[in-house]
Amino acid sequence: MQSSRSATDPLHPGPGGFAHRGLHDESRPENSLAAFRAAIEAGCGIECDLQLSGCNSAIVFHDRDGRRLCGHDGRLADHDAETIGGWSIGTSPERVPTLTQLLELVAGRVPLLLELKEEHRNGERIAAAALRALQGYDGPVGVMSFSARAMRFVRLTAPDVRRGLVLSGRDVAMRRWDKRQRAQPQFLAVKVSIADRGWVQAARGVMPVYSWTARTRADAAKLARFADAPIWEGDGDPRS
After folding, report:
1. Beta pairing class for 112-116 and 141-145
2. Sign of the C-alpha dihedral computed for residues 210, 213, 214 and 218 taken in this order
3. What pLDDT does 74 receive?
4. Please, which residues have CB within 8 angstroms of residue 196's CB and are 6 or more apart in sequence?
5. Contact in structure between 146 and 166 (CB atoms under 8 Å)
6. What's the total number of domains in the chain?
7. Is residue 15 exposed (0-12), middle (13-18) or buried (19+ Cβ within 10 Å)?
8. pLDDT value at position 3?
9. Tens-digit pLDDT profile for residues 8-35
10. Which partner from 124, 192, 193, 200 sits 20 to 30 angstroms from 171, CA to CA?
11. Dist CA 117 CA 150 (whole Å)
12. From start to end of the chain, where are the E strands?
């Protein structure tokens, strides 16, 4: 059941939830413009990942290196955005996009959740890169991270940008409290396995709670009760 906060949540994606790394499948790789187009056409919000390039650009990519998806062993931090943008994703014709390219594609049509991936304590740098790309963007968007450092930077330098904490349940209560104090999040994104915990449901009294990653019908059913919106892929489709 959605909390009363959902009705006023500027990021609420509606019944389609947030497509995890876009609406991807064998023909549309994760975090590709093709997967994002499919999500827009389906009326789903978009969740995606941001890594920092060697030239301090925000790149839409999950991994710290290109080995799994692109066959490149090098870390993204060792290459500039132009080089990374030439990498093919899997066997598809899709190339690795920048955040700027994603924003140009979406153009405010669906809500965006941008997860900042902190590597080697670069949370402030990846946050700064994302905020530079977001300047002038006129659409519903939230930035989120496991890193309280990154979210504190957003809070202090761009308080009008909606920010959230990503939590997996590994942090003890005092650590969660410390992160929330530093970040002062406006939403949480929690792992499916902890969505029904008491402290998560208590948080829903004051802010929206989204949950990742719903991959099964059982996950979707659970999050329909315990989260304000699912972040899903595959059989976790909340519309099924």
Report:
1. parallel
2. negative
3. 86
4. 222, 225, 226
5. yes
6. 1
7. exposed
8. 55
9. 899 999 999 999 999 999 899 999 999 9
10. 124
11. 9
12. 18-20, 45-52, 58-60, 112-116, 141-145, 162-167, 187-191, 209-214, 229-232
pLDDT at residue 7 greater than cutoff 80: no
What is the token pair recorded at 239? Answer: 């519309």
Query: Containing domain of residue 132, as a range?
Result: 20-185
Residue 64 belongs to domain with CATH number = 3.20.20.190
Enter the tokens of residue 6. 């959902």
HSE at residue 157, side-chain half, CA atoms within 13 A, is 16
pTM: 0.96
Instruction: Report residue 40 as tokens.
Output: 């827009």
Q: Which two tokens stand for residue 36?
A: 């994002």
Contact 91, 23 (CB under 8 A): no
Please tell me the total number of residues recorded for the chain in this structure.
240
Q: Which two tokens stand for residue 71?
A: 């066959």
Q: What is the pLDDT of residues 48-66, one digit of tens each?
A: 999 999 999 999 999 999 9
Residue 220 lies in a domain: no
Rounded-to-10 torsion of CA 83, 140, 235, 192: 100
